[in-house]
Fold this protein.
Amino acid sequence: MSMEQHPGSTLPGWQGPFYPEGVVALTHAFQGRDSRSGAELMHLGKMTAGYIKCERPPRAGDGYGWFWGVEYQIGGARIMIAMPWGGDGRMIGGVSCERSPAVYVKGSYQQRAVDGVLAELTRVASTAPSTLHQPR
């Protein structure tokens, strides 16, 4: 993932994209994981407060198809962290090339709620064992 931001990546029915400071730490946390699959993202999402679901978001306004979106309900707001595809393997600034994760919201929200979701998902992504190493 790169830190390249795409303000044209709007999603129908959502406000955003937003790129708060916490997406940088989240990017590095996911870059270091053994697996960046949808199942892995769902596993991590379920370990965080307010988790609703993990699914592929609709195609963005700039034509981009996000890898997965992790959705949360925090108070009266829905918050989605959209995760990009893993990239082409080239490394720039310590991360593989693609684009930055983005935040989308529905409803009335406070920035600290968004920051809290990012921090919690980053913490879990940095510390939880990979699902690759768990028995099935």
The chain is about 25% helix and 25% strand. The helical segments are 22-31, 38-46, 111-127. The chain has one domain: 15-128. The first helix runs from residue 22 to 31.
